[in-house]
Design brief:
The protein is an alpha+beta fold. Helices cover 57% and strands 20% of the residues. The protein has four helices and four strands. The protein has a four-stranded antiparallel β-sheet. The longest helix is centred in the first third of the chain and has 36 residues. The radius of gyration is 20 Å and the shape is elongated.
Length: 107
């Protein structure tokens, strides 16, 4: 009886670990997919990071009025210099640079 309980607990913990990993991966994938799905659109254009309704947003340089993506990063939580950059707009040339910049602003 005691061995069955140990086996059950081990299986339960393994299942919890699998589901936790799946949820973590799917959440990260969704955030990355938003940027990747628009990578082809921005391949010939620069990205611009700017304030949009109080949040950091990603714009395509040639379409400054409609954000490609609005992040959940409040501009009010940024350093003073970064807040100023969000007012004027920060040009980013590559998708990789965009991801790095967003990670930096979000931390």
């Amino acid at each position: 009886m005691r061995n069955k309980l140990k086996v059950f607990l081990v299986l339960f913990l393994v299942l919890c670990a699998v589901f936790s990993s799946a949820f973590a991966i799917s959440g990260a994938s969704r955030a990355e997919n938003k940027l990747i799905s628009t990578q082809a659109v921005g391949s010939e254009n620069n990205y611009v990071l700017r304030d949009y309704e109080g949040y950091v947003a990603v714009f395509i340089e040639n379409d400054p009025y409609r954000p490609m993506t609005v992040t959940d990063i409040p501009v009010s939580t940024l350093r003073e210099m970064d807040r100023q950059l969000m007012q004027t707009g920060l040009k980013v040339k590559t998708h990789e640079s965009l991801v790095v910049m967003l990670e930096d602003l979000g931390s």
